[in-house]
Each structure stands twice: as C-alpha cells, then as structure tokens.
C-alpha cells in the first residue's frame, strides 16, 4: 500500500470526518437490515457510496478528479499480490479437502482426546481443525458442539469446555493461512501473508501456551467419569475418506517451503498442486463424486481437481455435524473477500486523495499528546479494528 500521505490545508477536520461518520451510519443501518448477509454485497456498495461522498467533499475543496482516480489505482495496485494469494488460498482449501488432508488432520486431532487431559486436548483439537479449515465459527459450530457434548458426559463444567473450544478455535483461525481475516489484514497493511502470520506468532503463541497451562491445571483438579466417546465422528471420517499419515506430507511440504522463505504464491501453488495429486492417488472415489463421474479417468480426475480448485465442493458424511466442516468454496469462495478489498481500496484511495486521512491522523496525534489522549485514541483504533474483524467473521 502506498506510504504517501496527501495533505490538504483547505480541508477542515469536520469536513474530513463527514465521509467517515456517514459511512459508519450507512454500514450500521445496512447491517441492521441485512444482518449476516450484509457482506454478500451490500456492504461493498456502501463502501463505494462512502467513496462518492468523500469525492464530493474533495470537489468542494478543489481536489482534482484525476488525482482521486490515480490514488485509487495506486491502492488497487498495492493489493494485487494479496488478491492473488486469496485466490490461491481458496484453491488450496479445495484440493486439501478432496485429498483428505484436512479430514486427516481432524481425525488425528480427535485421536488425542483423553478424559484425563480433556480440556487441553480440546484446545489442541480445535486449534488443529481451525488451522486446517481457516474458520473458527465452523470449528465451534461442528466439532466444538460435539466436544461440549462429550465434556458434559464426562461431568466437566460446560463453561470450561466452551472456553477450551473457543480458545483453540480462535487461535487456529488467527494463525491459519486459509482464514479470510488473516489474509485481509496484511492486504490492508501492505505486507505479505506469511510475514503477517510470523509476527502474530510473537504474541499469539505465548498466549496459547499460557492457556494450555491453565487448562492442564484445571484438568488435574477436575474429577471426570465415563469415556470421551468420539467414535461416531471418527467412523464418519473414515467412511468418507481414506485416512493415512502419508497425507500429512502435503502440509509438511508447504511448511518447509515457508521456513525456507519461499514466496507465498509459490508455496500455495505448490501445496494446491500437490494436494490435487494426492487426491487422485488416495481419494479416487471422492474425486469421482466431485466430478460426478462413474469411473476415474484422466478427464474425470481433471474435472474433480479443477472443480475443487475453482468452485464450491462438499463431501457428504454419515455425521451431519461434519458436513459443514467438509465443504470448500474454492477460488470462487474468496471472491466476496476480494470484492470487499477492492471497494475498501476505492474508499481509502479517495479519502487519501482529498487529504482526509492526513487530517484525521494529525488530529489523533494531537489528542495523543497526553497520557489520557494516547489511551483514548488507541482504544478508539482498537474498537474500529474489532468492529471490522467481527463483521468479517460473520461470513464464516
């Protein structure tokens, strides 16, 4: 993203805030009307309307139309790498699903479930599943609910189980390269995906370690009864997929590339293609089902892998709770997030071109001269970030 900040001495702080306040009001009403469906397209158009209002403010302050368009173009150019990565993330999720990589990670995660270490095991399981799927809400609503039921059968307080589920799910979502919010943040900040994840690890990893220690201590103090019966889920996974430790070579190869500082696009493309090859080798029946074919031929294998890469695919199991988990939107599933990025870049580009961002930043810096002002301004920024993230999470 461009680091150039345009200043406009003729623009007052009140004029600079007009597009911001108007945008917040329009988004609030739009979410009120559409609820969770707001990100399906209406919020994106609201961002364009916000950009139009900012442009009107710019015209009143002698800002040239071409200057606004050039700034929007610069913003869009800066996000091209992030958009390509988002598309490759969708493709990767598709081939990792039909190859059995994601089901294998979930299967072996559930295998570590044990009544004596149920709470920390729940954290680890939900973290693994959330990293594999890139969605904390899907993890919590599927395997998370199953784990709460198992915890209840063991007479473990349900509040503790729910806390363990959410702790693992949100950690996994935050650190997963398949998560749309994890991809959206570096796209807005102008950095790459794996650099963003690496720096998040500095605060997130110590947090999850402390969380695990707390849940280990709680597990020691709780008396459990019965067995952690996850047999029905494990059987459903084995019925739908061929499970093998060899499938873990695919994510391991991508991790090795990341460690060797391979460019994110190259690592994701390699992981996608390798997942497609493993799908044909290990999951021929799944590939045939995705291609809607009766036999595995070169044509049906090609169609199955390409469908998983590009469009929405799902694998049905005998356990309804797993069906939402074993679905992927492919590259097509990432278009909503890409659309959101493009519209946000239009709004931000116009705001930058008219000098509104610089004027608001100067006002915040003046407010931060005092300790109280610094605290207030930082909390305001944090609140805005939380609102953005919670709104984006509603698509999961």
Please, could you describe this protein's structure?
With 396 residues, the protein is an all-alpha fold. Helices cover 74% and strands 1% of the residues. The chain contains 20 helices and two strands. It has helices at residues 13-34, 42-60, 65-78, 80-98, 101-111, 118-133, 136-141, 143-153, 158-175, 180-189, 193-221, 231-240, 249-259, 264-282, 284-291, 298-310, 320-323, 335-353, 356-367, 371-393; strands at 313-314, 327-328. Strands 1-2 form a two-stranded antiparallel sheet. Helix 6 packs antiparallel against helix 8, helix 6 (118-133) packs parallel to helix 9 (158-175) and helix 6 (118-133) packs antiparallel against helix 11 (193-221). It is globular, with a radius of gyration of 24 Å. The model is unreliable at 388-396 (pLDDT under 50).
Report the count of strand segments.
2
Q: Could you tell me the mean pLDDT?
A: 82
Radius of gyration from the CA trace?
24 Å
In the sheet with the most strands, the strands line up as 1-2
DSSP helix count?
20
Order of helices and strands: HHHHHHHHHHHHHHHHEHEHHH
Helix proportion range? over 70%
The helix-and-strand class reads mainly alpha
* Overall 3D form: globular
Instruction: Characterize the main sheet.
Output: 2 strands, antiparallel
Please describe the topology of this protein:
Elements: H1 13-34, H2 42-60, H3 65-78, H4 80-98, H5 101-111, H6 118-133, H7 136-141, H8 143-153, H9 158-175, H10 180-189, H11 193-221, H12 231-240, H13 249-259, H14 264-282, H15 284-291, H16 298-310, E1 313-314, H17 320-323, E2 327-328, H18 335-353, H19 356-367, H20 371-393
Helix pairs in contact: 1-2, 1-19, 2-18, 3-18, 4-10, 4-14, 4-16, 5-6, 5-12, 6-8, 6-9, 6-11, 8-9, 9-11, 10-11, 13-14, 15-16, 19-20
């Amino acid at each position: 993203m461009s680091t150039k900040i345009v200043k406009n001495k003729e623009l007052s702080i009140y004029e600079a805030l007009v597009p911001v306040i108007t945008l917040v009001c329009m988004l609030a009403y739009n979410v009120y009307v559409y609820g969770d469906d707001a990100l399906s397209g209406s919020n994106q158009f609201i961002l364009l309307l916000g950009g139009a209002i900012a442009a009107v403010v710019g015209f009143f302050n002698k800002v040239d139309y071409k200057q606004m368009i050039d700034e929007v173009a610069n913003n869009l150019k800066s996000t091209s790498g992030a958009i390509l990565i988002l598309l490759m993330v969708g493709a990767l999720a598709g081939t990792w699903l039909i190859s059995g990589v994601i089901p294998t990670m979930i299967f072996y995660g559930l295998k570590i479930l044990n009544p004596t270490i149920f709470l920390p095991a729940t954290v680890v399981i939900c973290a693994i599943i959330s990293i594999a799927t890139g969605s904390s809400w899907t993890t919590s609503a599927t395997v998370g609910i199953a784990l709460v039921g198992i915890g209840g059968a063991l007479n473990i307080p349900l509040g503790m189980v729910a806390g363990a589920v959410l702790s693992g799910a949100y950690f996994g979502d935050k650190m997963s390269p398949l998560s749309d919010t994890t991809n959206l943040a570096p796209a807005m900040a102008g950095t790459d995906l794996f650099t963003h994840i690496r720096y998040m690890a500095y605060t997130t990893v110590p947090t999850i370690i402390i969380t695990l220690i707390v849940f280990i201590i709680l597990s020691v103090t709780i008396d459990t009864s019965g067995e952690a019966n996850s047999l029905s889920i494990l059987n459903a996974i084995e019925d739908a997929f061929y499970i093998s430790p060899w499938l873990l070579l695919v994510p391991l190869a991508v991790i090795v590339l990341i460690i060797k500082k391979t460019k994110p696009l190259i690592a994701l493309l390699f992981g996608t293609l390798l997942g497609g090859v493993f799908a044909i080798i290990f999951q021929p029946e799944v590939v045939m089902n995705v291609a809607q074919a009766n036999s595995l031929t070169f044509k049906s294998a090609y169609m199955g892998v390409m469908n998983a890469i590009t469009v929405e695919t799902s694998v049905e199991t005998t356990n309804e709770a797993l069906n939402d988990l074993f679905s992927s939107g492919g590259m097509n599933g990432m278009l909503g997030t890409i659309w959101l990025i493009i519209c946000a870049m239009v709004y931000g580009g116009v705001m930058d071109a008219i000098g509104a961002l610089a004027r608001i930043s100067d006002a915040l810096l003046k407010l931060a001269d005092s300790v109280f002002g610094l605290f207030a301004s930082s909390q305001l920024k944090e609140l805005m970030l939380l609102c953005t993230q919670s709104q984006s999470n509603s698509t999961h």
